[in-house]
Each structure stands twice: as C-alpha cells, then as structure tokens.
Amino acid sequence: MIGISVVLRTRSWIVLCLGMLTVGAPAAFAADCPGHPDALGTSRTLVVDPREHPLIGTMQYRETLPLKDHEVVLTFDDGPLPKYSNQVLQILADECIKATFFIIGSQAKANPEGVRKLVAAGHTVGTHSMDHPLTFDRMPIDKAEAEINGGIAWTSAAMTDPSQLAPFFRIPGLMRAEGVENYLISRGIQVWSADFPADDWRHVSSDRVYQLAIQRLEAKGKGILLLHDIQARTVAALPKIIRDLKARGYRIVHVVPATAERPATPTTTVEWLLHPPTETTPIARWPRVPNFVFTQTRALPAPALADLNALAEHQPLLPLRTMAQANVAATLPAPGRALFAIPEGSVEVLLSTTLSRRAATRLAMAAEATRAAKDKAAHAKAAKGKAAKLQGRRTAHAAAAPDHVEQPKGTTAKGTTATGTAPKGPASRSATTRPTRVASLKKRA
Ligand SMILES: [Zn+2]
C-alpha cells in the first residue's frame, strides 16, 4: 500500500510539473481541438473597438493590435476563391486556428457560399472593396466610397446574419489615402494595415513565403501577418508556417469587434504600440512650467528639482551646480588695477603691427612726448638747482666732441631733441649749436 501511494504521489507530481511547464504554451490548447492533439490552437480572443483605435498595422500606422510578445494574428485577403480558400479553411480547422478574412465584394457575389463557410467556422469576416482597384490613393473619394460600400453590401448579402460582418476594412494593395481613411473612420470602420506580409502575391516559391513569414515575425516578435487565401503557394506554405509558429512558442489571437453585448478587451494606450516605451528607454522630459508670481514679488523663486519633472535616475540630464563650483565662485580674488596696465614700449610695438608706419611713428612720438613731459616735471626742481653747473659742463663738452654736434639732425628749429632725458638748455645753448650746423651745411654744399 505504501509503495503504491508513493508511485501515485510521484505520478501526480510529474503531471503537475508537466502542467506547469505547458501553461501558456500552444500544447495547452490542444484539448480544445478534438482529433488534433498537436494543434497550435487559438490562445485567446481579443475584442476591439474600431472607434477607439481606427488605424492599425505598423506597416503604415503608429498603432497596431495590443498583442503580447509572441502573439500572432493571421489575416487572409482577396477571397473567397473556392479552390484555395477551402484548403486554407481546412488547414486552419485542423489547427483550431481562428483568423480574419478580408473579402472582395465581387468574390462574395460569385461565391456567397464561401462567405457563409467562413462565418460558420467562426472566423472574423471584414471587407476589402468591391473590385480590388489598386488606385485608392488617387481615385475620387466618391468612387472610393462606392468601392467600399459595394464590398460591404455584397459580403453582408452573402451572410445568413449580416450583423456577423465585422467593421474591419483593408485597403487594396495598402494604397492608403487620408480621404479614404477619414471616410472609413466616420463610419466606425477600423482600417487594417498589417505588421508584416509574406509576399505570397508575388511569383516566389512557397518555401520563400514560409521563410519571409517567419523571418519578419521574428524581427518584430508579434503582430498581424498578411496572407492571401487565393494563392497555391500560400496553401502550400501555411502548414509549415503553423508548425514553425508552434515550435517557436508563438500563440494565435482571434480578433473580433466590440458590440453592445461584447465590450472591448480592456487595454492601455501604450499596448497599441508595437514597442511600448519602457523605464530603460531614455526619454527627453520637458520641464513643467513653474508657477511664477509676477505681481507680488520682484524676485522670482529658484525652481526646485521637482519643477523640472525629473526622476532621480534622470538627474544626469540636468546641468547641476555643485557645491565645489559655488565655493570657487565665492572665493575668486578681484583682479588688481596693475593687471590691466600696458608695459612700457609695448604701445609702439602694438601700433607698428596694426597701423601704417607713418601713423605709428606719429603716435609713438606723441607717447614719447607725454613721457618726456612727465619726466621733466619730476626733475624740474633738481634741474633748476643744478642748471648753472650743467650749463658749464655742456658748453665744454660740445666744443670737445663734434659727434654730439651732428646728432641733432632731427631737431626742430626751436632746438627740442628726441631724447627726453637731456633737459633743454637755456638760450645760450642754441647760440652755441647754431653756428656748428651752419658750418656743416656750408661744408656739404
Ligand atoms: Zn488584396
């Protein structure tokens, strides 16, 4: 008895563990698909309100269906065409997958039974215009409206219960136009683009269709796959796509429109974005406008960090005034007046590089004259006291040295010299120099 109970307990643990492993995995839905234990199944039904999110599909719009990671919505356009549409229906039935079909009015007119089969199988049925013109982006709006309404009229006419028609529309060739979108929105019809196609309308192999479907899905991680149920290559590729979806852990979501009895699945706005922003995504946050009080006070209050709408982790984005910077600013010494004084002689150098030679010379002479006047004032007393003694020396010196006599070539008629240090002699000095100059001029002539 003990041995048996241990075995039973062990088995129940194994069953429990297996059950936990398969929670959320596709195998969990196999039970809903009698006779097909390996079916992918449909993981959940998403109810959407077209008026709240009228444009979906990241191939063209900002928003897409609020899918979780690894969730996929299958869509099929351009049917029903019995030869291929019936095969697609059978493949989906074997996998217990619910999809969305966008019907062409002329196809529904030619094959109303095909529309009824879709509804009976529990798929969602929307429309795709009357005759599938690839000119929705440039046709007159009244013609576009006629195309839209013709498709709706013939598809709903094919149904036993016209209320089964979903207010979902896909523009042929995804040739979107604002006028067309506005018209559809005004009628409460949701415009379905897609998140990725598999190029199954092009002349490619079914293998290529399978590869593109999986590669593009893997690139986005979830989304709306656009296929066509009127192509042999799609019929051939579909089983492989479904097998691979299951192997990679993808789940199928069935989308239906909200009604009075069936409210929309609660979602948040960011869930309608393919990649909602996360806490790790850096976002520039604009500062909030502080509440300034202009009438009561002359001094505006310094904004607090909270006014800048910054979270703690975003603080490096803001230029912060540190205490070290504040201290440096407070203790910087005031520069002394001597710092701005121009050193002696640098005026001439400065001017000679910036002015013409004549202007520089003129300014330099003026500066020299100013200095000379200063020196003269400073030595005035001393010079006065020794005037008689100096006069005696200079007279003797002038007579002994002819070089000195030649020097005053640049002197003016009044006898002022360029050298400021030598004080101007009294009247007797000019009396001694003048005869010398005259003599030298006579000698040259
Ligand atoms: Zn189409």
From TrEMBL:
Signal peptide per UniProt: 1-30
Region of interest: Disordered: 375-445
Biased composition (Low complexity): 408-427
Biased composition regions of type Basic residues, renumbered to the chain: 379-396
Residues in NodB homology domain copies: 70-253
Annotated keywords: Hydrolase, Metal-binding, Signal
Similarity section: Belongs to the polysaccharide deacetylase family.
Protein's job: Is involved in generating a small heat-stable compound (Nod), an acylated oligomer of N-acetylglucosamine, that stimulates mitosis in various plant protoplasts.
Protein's name in the database: Chitooligosaccharide deacetylase
